[in-house]
Design brief:
Layout: E1 5-7, E2 10-13, H1 17-28, E3 33-37, E4 51-53, H2 57-67, H3 71-78, E5 79-85, E6 95-100, H4 102-115, E7 119-123, E8 126-132, E9 150-156, E10 161-163, E11 166-169, E12 178-181, E13 184-187, H5 198-205, E14 211-217, E15 220-222, E16 232-234, E17 257-261, H6 264-272, H7 278-281, H8 295-301, E18 309-314, E19 321-325, H9 333-341, E20 351-353, E21 356-362, E22 380-382, H10 392-410, H11 424-435, H12 459-470, H13 475-497, E23 499-500, E24 503-504, H14 505-510, H15 516-522, H16 524-527, H17 533-544, H18 546-563, H19 581-590, H20 595-600, H21 606-617
Parallel strand pairs: 1-10, 2-3, 2-11, 3-7, 11-22
Antiparallel strand pairs: 4-6, 5-6, 8-9, 9-10, 12-13, 12-21, 14-21, 15-19, 15-20, 16-17, 17-18, 18-19, 23-24
Helix pairs in contact: 1-10, 2-10, 2-12, 3-4, 6-9, 12-13, 13-17
Flavin-adenine dinucleotide (FAD) binds next to helix 1, strand 3, strand 14 and helix 10.
Cofactor: FAD
Binding site for NAD(+): 288-302
Protein name: tRNA uridine 5-carboxymethylaminomethyl modification enzyme MnmG
């Protein structure tokens, strides 16, 4: 019997946050794309907390938006509460965060992928990969890309084949997934859903190494059964700031969140039942996110604390369901009931969904190039939680980068790699592919050495021109950006030219106490310039922080200079005693023109580059 075949340019497996951005990106760049997912009703689902953004993650959302991605627009349209975190600190720390109406967010993403030209969405369970060439066995040395097998498609349950030159895997927490609530174990990547075991087998057959991580989620409550009079209210910002550079204003009404806390009795209940917690009974041995611990973990690790804060977050406008942020747990149901009922305001609360932990396979990301293409199989890309990350934003960002690179690869174009000084997305991917992960990876501002440059406010100035070159940023975005940039340049020129009491307005603006309205009092010419509020704010940040920014730019220049260090064609790598034999072989064969090219050779480590650079400066 002949098999059903479908032919596409790019296939994306999984329609979570990585998959949807990857598929939209690929289709928008003109590739005929298929998005295959286990269940069309869960496209864009927020598996855990109904919120987008937060510290460092908010910056990522703005970067995705600046490049032409979807996440920022979706949360602007479906957010129920918006807050700019760290607004009391310097602008490099400002981070937008918003509660989403969970279902509205998911349905809007479903609509966006449905509306997208060049994109076919199909409910399919993908079971294995189809390749051309001989797989490289696990543990065998990494061959050169031209000697690796190549992806040609995937096989789905029921036997149909989808063929393409590039395949992007974004299967999230679903590979060999097991959920735990106390002693109870169920197969599945998310409550109420299934798992996929055959995909893991298929990866292993191709020589990929897989490891296991775990993550967890708290109980959800019925809001009707909560006593709000005992809780502290947490309203949104008075002047909510959008995520997307294309959203003028957040128009919708905001809903408050609520605060409560655990207490000594809750901690005693948890301690008395630790032997029943899968993390402590030995039922789970894989690593979870250290910075996002379960409540049982918090009680053990911070034994001197008698209380931990809990944010009660509404899951939407048309539901009473409440997410209990801060008490993620996999304790048994009876313990969760007792725990919840011992918390102020929750004495009569009914749990609608119990908390659980999920263990799943991930593929250590050192098996990837910085394009997110795998080193073992040409044309095969991994993005999202499968790479050992956690978080919607980290997943979405990887999806976009994988989508771009898949399309560039099949068009035989240069790959797209963001530098660490250009974007948090550059930091994220560089960390993943060079350092790997030993716990679920989430972004922090501290991971970015150039964080003064990588602000949420300037993501469009850093990335929209790149989005335009890639064909991702649409005409409306590009026109709006051009107008904004012109306003900024006009203002900067005027500030340098106009004077007040002997000093330029630029010098005045550098003073901490001087803001835009005062400058306008100093000069009617400036006051009459047509400028958006956002452009004014950008100019102020630019001028006030120019000293720090300049210093970081000089650091980057210095680093770039070392990367452009030329290597003579006749250079004898074998004469560098400290170099590893593998590095000597590869350098001798490739004969890189400069250090930057040397660094792109597969298998070359930062240490090899450091030795080579030193030797070029000081031979012998
Ligand atoms: P997902 O959003 O998981 O999407 C995977 C997609 O792949 C789904 O659409 C699925 O149907 C599809 N799929 C899987 N296998 C196949 C197949 N074989 N064929 C076809 N389709 C397939 N993040 C945090 O930041 N903080 C947290 O506290 C947190 N807790 C979490 C708790 C739980 C219980 C879970 C499940 C997740 C949690 N996360 C948390 C992680 C967050 O949900 C993920 O980081 C994010 O959703 C990853 O996005 P993704 O696109 O990689 O995968």
């Amino acid at each position: 019997m002949s098999k059903t075949h479908y032919q596409y340019d790019v296939i994306v497996i999984g329609a979570g946050h990585a998959g949807t951005e990857a598929a939209l990106t690929s289709a928008r760049m003109g590739a005929k794309t298929a998005l295959l997912t286990m269940n069309c009703d869960t496209i864009g689902q927020l598996s855990c907390n109904p919120a987008i953004g937060g510290v460092a993650k908010g910056q990522i959302v703005r970067e995705i938006d600046a490049l032409g991605g979807e996440m920022g627009k979706l949360i602007d349209a479906t957010g129920i509460q918006f807050r700019m975190l760290n607004s009391g600190k310097g602008p490099a720390m400002w981070s937008p965060r918003a509660q989403a109406d969970k279902k509205a967010y998911q349905f809007l993403m479903k609509l966006r992928v449905e509306e997208q030209e060049n994109l076919t969405i199909r409910q399919e369970m993908v079971e294995s990969l189809i390749i051309e060439g001989t797989p490289v066995p696990e543990g065998a040395p990494q061959p050169e890309p031209e000697d690796c097998p190549r992806i040609t498609g995937v096989l789905v349950r029921g036997g149909a084949e989808y063929r393409a030159q590039a395949v992007i895997i974004t299967t999230g927490t679903f590979l060999q997934a097991i959920m735990h609530t106390g002693e109870a174990k169920t197969k599945g990547g998310r409550a109420g859903e299934g798992t996929t075991g055959t995909m893991s087998d298929s990866f292993r057959e191709l020589g990929f190494q897989l490891e296991r991580f775990k993550t967890g989620t708290p109980a959800r409550l019925n809001g009707r059964t909560i006593d709000y009079s005992q809780l502290e209210i947490q309203p949104g910002d008075e002047n909510p700031q959008p995520f997307s550079f294309m959203t003028e204003k957040i128009e919708q009404e905001q809903i408050p969140c609520w605060l409560t806390a655990t207490n000594q009795h809750v901690h005693d209940v948890i301690k008395a039942n630790l032997h029943r917690a899968p993390m402590y009974s030995g039922q789970i041995s894989s690593t979870g996110p250290r910075y996002c611990p379960s409540v049982e973990d918090k009680v053990v690790r911070f034994a001197d604390k008698s209380s931990h804060q809990i944010f009660l977050e509404p899951e939407g406008r048309n539901t009473l369901e409440i997410y209990c942020n801060g008490i993620s747990t996999s304790l048994p149901r009876d313990v969760q009931d007792e725990m919840v009922r011992s918390i102020a305001g929750l004495e009569n609360a009914e749990i609608m969904r119990y908390g659980y932990a999920v263990e799943y396979d991930f593929a250590p990301p050192t098996q990837l190039f910085a394009t997110l293409e795998t080193k073992r199989v040409g044309g095969l890309y991994f993005a999202g939680q499968i790479n050992g990350t956690t978080g919607y934003e980290e997943a979405a960002g990887q999806g976009l980068i994988a989508g771009v690179n898949a399309v560039l690869k099949i068009a035989n174009k240069e790959p797209f790699i963001l530098d660490r000084s250009q974007a948090y997305l550059g930091v994220l991917i560089d960390d993943l592919v060079t350092k790997g992960v030993d716990e679920p990876y989430r972004m922090f501002t501290s991971r970015a050495e150039y964080r003064l440059l990588l602000r949420q406010d300037n993501a469009d100035r850093r990335l929209t021109p790149i989005g335009q070159q890639l064909g991702l940023a649409d005409a409306e975005r590009c026109a709006q950006f051009q107008q904004y940039e012109t306003q900024i340049q006009t203002a900067l020129t005027l500030l340098a030219k106009l004077r007040h009491q002997g000093n330029s307005l630029e010098e005045w603006l550098r003073r901490p106490e001087i803001e835009w309205p005062q400058l306008c009092e100093f000069s009617s010419e400036l006051a009459n310039v047509e400028m958006s509020e956002r452009a004014k704010q950008q100019v102020q940040i630019e001028v006030k922080y120019s000293g720090y920014v300049k210093r970081q730019q000089q650091d980057i220049e210095r680093q770039k200079k070392s990367l452009s260090l030329r290597i003579p064609v006749t250079f004898d790598y074998r004469a560098v005693p400290q170099l590893r034999n593998e590095a000597k072989d590869k350098f001798s064969r490739v004969k890189p023109a400069d250090i930057a090219q040397a660094g792109r050779i597969s298998g070359i480590t930062p240490a090899d580059l450091a030795i080579l650079t030193l030797y070029l400066h000081e031979p012998g």
